[in-house]
Amino acid sequence: MNLTVPKVMRQILSTKKESSTNGFPVEHISASFMISIATNPILAKIRYINKDIFDSAMGISGVLGKSFHTAMSVYYGGSDVLIPTNEAEAIEYGLKAGMEYLQNYNDGFINFSKTIENKQKALELLSFCYQSYIKEFPYKMSEVISTEEKIVESVSVDWRGKSLVLPIKLKGFTDKIERSDDKKLRIRDYKTCYTFSNPEKIDGAKIIQAIEYYLLVYAKYGEEPYSIIFDEVKYSKNKDNSSQVRSYEVVYAENELYFDFYFRLYEDIIRYLNGEAVFLPNLHALFDNEISIISYIHRLDETEEVARLMKKHKVDRISDLLKKEIQSAGNMRKLLKTVEERFVSAKNIDYEKMNIQDKIQTKMLEYGIMLQFDSKIEGSAIDLYRYNPSMGVKMSRLKTFVDDIEQVVGISGIRVLAPIPNSKLVGFEVPRESRVFPQLPAHDKTFNLMIGKTIDGQVKIFDIREAPHILVAGSSGSGKSIFLHSMIRQMIQIPNVELHLFDPKQVELFQYEESVAEYKHSPDGIASSLTSLVSEMEKRYSKMKKLKIKNISETDSFNYKVIIIDEYADLKAKTAVDNNIKLLAQKGRACGIHIIIATQRASTKIIDGDVKINFPVKVVFRVGKAIDSRVMIDEDGAEKLLGKGDCLFQSDSGIERLQAFNL
Description:
Layout: H1 7-14, E1 28-30, H2 31-39, H3 41-49, E2 58-59, H4 60-77, H5 87-104, E3 110-111, H6 119-134, E4 144-153, E5 156-159, E6 162-165, E7 169-179, E8 185-193, H7 204-221, E9 227-234, E10 245-251, H8 256-273, H9 289-297, H10 303-313, H11 318-327, H12 339-342, H13 356-366, E11 371-378, E12 382-389, H14 395-398, H15 402-409, E13 415-417, E14 426-431, E15 448-453, E16 459-463, E17 470-473, H16 480-491, E18 497-502, E19 518-520, H17 523-547, E20 560-565, H18 568-574, H19 578-587, E21 593-599, H20 609-614, E22 617-620, H21 626-633, E23 646-651, E24 654-660
Parallel strand pairs: 1-7, 2-3, 8-9, 17-21, 17-22, 18-19, 18-20, 20-21
Antiparallel strand pairs: 4-7, 5-6, 7-8, 9-10, 11-12, 12-14, 13-14, 15-16, 15-24, 22-23, 23-24
C-alpha cells in the first residue's frame, strides 16, 4: 500500500524509539478524546485535560447501548459469577446480565425519550436487540480472542516496511477480537441504534475508531488486523420484517485515506496539546462535514498544498479542486463495505428437529423474549408446557404470540397462560395428538358438581350454590349439550334440589320429563313458569323475613330450585322473558333459586351487560368467532378450542381450561 503520510508521521516513522508522555498534558489518546477535540474542544479540555469529571444524565439510547455491551460481554466471555458452559447458558446469562445492568441503572441519571419513555420499554428493547443480534451469528467461542477488552498501548510497530512509533499511548475498548475460519484477525464493534447509518456517508468518528483499534490491536498482539466490522442492531422494528442487524466492514488494505485522515488528526492534536492553534474539522456538522473531512485529508486548508494540487489537476478554483479530490476518494465510501455486499440475513432455524418445548422457547426467542423451560404436565386432552420468564417480559405481550406458536408447533388450539394462576411461571397449553375423554364419575349427591378434568388430571368441583348462576355457551359439536346432561344427572341425585328444565327445541332434555319437578318446551309455557318462579321467589323472601334469616341455608323449610334453560337465544327471540330472568338472577341466590342458561349464539344481543354481570360463572366451549369469546370471557381463545368437551371455566379464581366429562 502506498500511503501519503503527513510530515510529522514521516518523521515518527524514521526511527524506532520508545514513546513518551513527557511534556504532554494527557497520558494517552483515545478515539473519544480525538472526536471530542474535533467537535467540542472546551468539553474535551474540561474532561480529558483538566480531568474535571462530573455526573450528568445520559440519554436512554446510550444506557441501552451500555446494557447491550454488558450482555454481549457475558454472552461471549462470561463474568465472575456467570460462567456459561454452552450456548444456551451463554444466551441466558448474557440477557440476565444486560437486564440487571439496565434495571439497576439509576432512573435519575437517564434522559428518557418519546421513543423509549420508561425503563420497562427499554428492557423490552434490550431483549429484542440482544435476541436479534445473537441469532444472526454462530456461537463459536473458538473464534473469540478477547471481548470487551481495555487496551492501553505504546504504539511501536513495524508498519509498511518502516518503524512506526507514536509519542503518546493509545487507549481503547474493543468489543470483540476474533479469528474467523479464514484465519484473518478481525475487530468487531457493535452498537444499538434507532436507524441504520448510511454506508455512503463519510463518518469521521468511525474512521478514527477504525484506525485507533487497528493500531492498538497490532501493538498488543503483534499482528495487523485484517478489518473492523461495525455491527448495528436496530431497536425500531422493521416493517418489512427484514434483519434488525446490519454489518459494515472496513478492510484496512482497501481504505488508504482512513490512515491519512487519522495521522493528520493525530498530528494536529499533538500540536494542540503543545499549545499551538490548530483548525480541525467538525465531525458532526449537519451539512458539510463530509466536505470538511475530504478537505482536511488533502490539506486544502494549506496554501502551499492547494497550489500544488491545483497545478496537478489543472484547475484554478478551490471548488473545482475539491470536486477532483472527492472523485478520487471513492474508497471513503467503503466504510465497512457496501451495504449490498454485507447485508446480514437472518438464519433459517430448523424447527423440524426440535421437540415442542424447544420450538416454543426458540420462537419466543425470535421476538426477544427469553423463557427458561421448567416442566411439562401431561393431561387427557392438553399438555401444559411451563416456563420461567426472564426479567423484562410483559405478561400481556405473551398472549399476542398464539398464532406464531401454533405455526411453529403445527397444532391449533394453543392457549397462553401469562402467568399461570397462583404461579410465577407462564404456560402454553398444547393439544395432544390423541385425546382421552374422561367418563363422568359417580356423584356423591352433594352440591359439589363435577365440571371436568384439569390438565393435571384432577376433577374440577364447584358448588353451584356459590355460583350463583352459570352461563354456558358453545357452537354445535362443542360439547355443550353433553355438559348440560352431566349437570342434570348429578343434580337429580341431590335430595333437596328441584329441577326446572326449559327446552325450547323439545329434543334435548325431554328424557328427564318424568324425573324432574318441571319440564316445559313451549315458549309460552316457559314464560308462564318463569313468572311463577318469580312469584315463588317473592313468597320465599316474605317467609325468610318472618324467620329472620338471610339465606335458606339457615333453615330446612325450603328446597333448592335449579332452572336450566337450553337454547336461550331461541327462547328470547320468541318471548319476553328478559325481566323475569334478570329478577331471578339478581335475587334468587339467597332464597335458593339458581339458573343455568345455555346458548349457541354468544352475541351481545343475547348476552347483554345485565346477563354477564348476574352470571359470573361461565363455561365456554368452542364458539364460532373471537368476538363471541370476548363477549363471554372478555378475551380471545374460546374460538380455538378443540370441541368435544374442551372448555374454559371462568369463576372468581380466573379462567381454567378443562376437559368436560363424557357420559
